Each structure stands twice: as structure tokens, then as C-alpha cells.
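residues and backbone:
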Amino acid sequence: MQYRKTPFGYLLVLDRGDELIRGLIAFARREDVDAAALYGIGAVSSVELAFFRLHLNRYERRTFSEELEACSIVGNLALLDDEPLPHVHGVFGRPDFSTIGGHIFEAVVGITLEISVHTVPTAVVRRPVDYCDLKLMRLEEPR
């Protein structure tokens, strides 16, 4: 992964074989990024997507091991127990122009992923909620 600081945050370029979520965590630790919005485009060779089923209180996961165009990757970075946690969703295009999408648990870069990271000048945290097992973003000071 390559990255460069910009006036709004950072530009990241992930190369073939890089892992998106692991790469974002390593980047956030290295650059001390506590909160950010992110978006990107590119191509992946595999992606693990999920859909959270509230009535079941769990994610349904599925891995797609195929060439996919990353049409839209959007998400954020926040802190969970003082560690960076990316929350990322994506829409991916197939050669027949159909799409798949959902919460990204991991994606392996096929050609490149180009990610813009817009940093926020304060820490944002994730906390448990009482209606599901997710840790949701809360606009409060970190503990």
C-alpha cells in the first residue's frame, strides 16, 4: 500500500494482493487516524460480503472469489476499545454488468483500489447498543 497526506486527509493506493480491511487498520494505526470518512474505486479478486439480519441478530456472509469491479466503496473509521475499526460497504460489478453489494468483511485487491480518506479532527467511538450485538458509532468523547 502507498499513501500520501493531503489537505483533507490521505490518498491510499492498494496494490494487487493487498487486503482492504487489514490495510485500513494498519494505516490507521501507523498514522494515528481515530476518525475518518472514506470512499474508493478499483477492482478486487475476491470479497467477503455480509448482510446484517436484525431479526436473527447476525450477519449472513458470503465470499465471492471472482474478478469484480469495485464500483463504489464507502465507509468510515472509528475507535472500538481504542483500536481503529473500519466500517465499509461496497457495490461490485460483474462482467455481465450485474452487481452485488453489502458490508465488506475483507476484500483482496485484484488490480488496484484507490481510496480517499477524509480525516475528522476528533475521535469517534463505537459502543454496544441494547437492540442488537453490533457496536454502533456514537458521537461522544472516547473513554
In short: The two ends are 31 Å apart (CA to CA). Residues 89 and 103 are 4 Å apart (CA to CA). The mean pLDDT is 96.
